[in-house]
Amino acid sequence: MIRPFAPGYRIPTDLLLKAYASGVFPMAESASDQEVFWVRPESRGIIPLDGFHIPKSLAKTMRKGAFDIRFDFDFEATIDACAEQRAERPSTWINAPIREAYVQLHRMGHAHSVEAWENGQLVGGLYGVSLGRVFFGESMFSKETDASKICLVHLVERLNERGFALLDTQFTTEHLKRFGAVDVPRAQYEAMLVEALMGTATF
To answer: Which residue, among 51, 85, 72, has the nearest Cα to 125 in the 3D structure?
Structure first.
């Protein structure tokens, strides 16, 4: 499951896309660690696009229109905010090689961000990789209450509107389970992945 790169290694984008198509994704031990390892979990987290659930309290907040939601407006600021260390998250797996690779994927049209802005400031967001009819969610952050959650709602709406078939969350958390996230065995996930990679969807 783990094969580290040498320090300072750059992740080739073609290798990264092949990894995603095979059910594998990269992580790092910390932001300062230059090594990258590949992960292929025994159990994979997904959010069924036809089973997405919006908590009532969040739906109420969304009706107030608290944030300006933008897509791909500032991808680099979004990944940087996801990588920031905070009291509730003292470490991050987003290191320099990972950041560089995903910025390149964004420029190629394969990585995207959903962003929440308030008074001209980026206060929440998420980013991930688009391939075939799959969106691989990578990370999210909030600087204001519910900002990232609202971005997730807008992500799912866009994926449903544009013909996506699979939303991969890599792992499930209690936070994501509130929205309908479930774990599926590796074999089942990889079968779903093969099917969802057939055809194309435009983010």
So the answer is: 72
